[in-house]
Amino acid sequence: MQVIAFMIFLFGPAIAQGLRPDVSQVNPPCAHPTQPEIRTMAATESDFLNVEQRLGISRRAFLKFCAGVAASMGLTGNAGLAMAEAVATARKRPPVIWLHGQECTGPSETLLRSEQPSLETLILDLISLEYHQTLDAGAGHIVEEQKRASMEANKGKYLLVIEGSIPTADNGIYCKIGGQTMLDATLEAAEHAAAIVAFGSCASWGGVPSAGPNPTGATGAPGVLKDKTVVTIPGCPPNPANFLGTVLYFVTYGKLPPLDSQGRPKWAYGRLIHENCYRRPHFDAGRFATQFGDEGHKKGWCLYKLGCKGPETYNNCPSLEFNNLGGGVWPIGVGHPCFGCSEGGVGFNKPLFSLAKVETHTAPNTFPAIDSREETSSASVGAAALAGAVVGAVAGASVMAAKKLGDKEGDSADKA
Fold first, then answer.
1. CATH architecture of 271-381
2. Entry pTM
3. Which of this chain's residues are annotated to bind [4Fe-4S] cluster 1 (predicted)?
């Protein structure tokens, strides 16, 4: 599937609303374009025609999809047009240097199976993959020499992708490629990179290799490149859509999307899994599965008491799911609690079935405590909510009454 399939899968809901880019700034209704503008417009039309032939989709549909991408990222309609032109316009694709450290190659594997877009579309249409230890056709010192030649020729222009954690103990001797430690390879490649992306939990914060006792001193790229901005795309494996969306933003604007304090793209990791989980209403109502296969588990109740780490894990798994199948293909969707694979200090650190720390306020204060809600009937929960509403109404009425009384006393004093 092509780039456009990625747009449909990732941003379908926004696109379905009929969002369109604001092209009024490109050519206002009453304006008469100059000759250079006419040539530019003709060139752009030609670029879009190439897109139609390459991706098998109409110009109109392509613009609508790009507008949907922009809207879903919180950008304007003009940004959607910019994305469309970035993909359509023939330009030099950004070169990519891809390093592998301590990992299972899961991030690359998930990209290999991506259809949003397919890996060949990513490589041939959006980026120029200069070096990738898993996908390189060649091997040995020749490939290493080509990597360094590309880095030299593209100083300050290439995108560095790091996959896997980086061992730092004993000068990094526990992971070597072509006689060079992963630690040295990372420092060398990062020096002149235009942008750095840590793909997967291992590269983002250490992942599995960094779990105790961590004899190799494994750490994520941000822990090694402390003086540089590193975009982190955590997950085990990470969702390829989060990586591809970040790449599309970089291709369009030549810069990185807005990031949170841990370097994660806000558009993908801005909310807790718990906030968007479709089992959340059961949490609020106090309906929990307590054993695999019990009645609550069969009915799709909340998995909090089985150790679900959704309340303390930031990711968009409930929205994207996995494998492009829909229908709940992700851990919680198939009845297993989230174990926080994308959250540093949670995945591979906390016991699998231990209770999560609820990071945000969830149910109203008038609800019973979580540990006392399992046997609570819906009637008593509803009564608690109603009581809270009544208390709120009384409090509000009291405030308004006091305010009016104060106003009247003030008027009386003025008249006196």
1. Irregular (4.10)
2. 0.72
3. 104, 202, 236
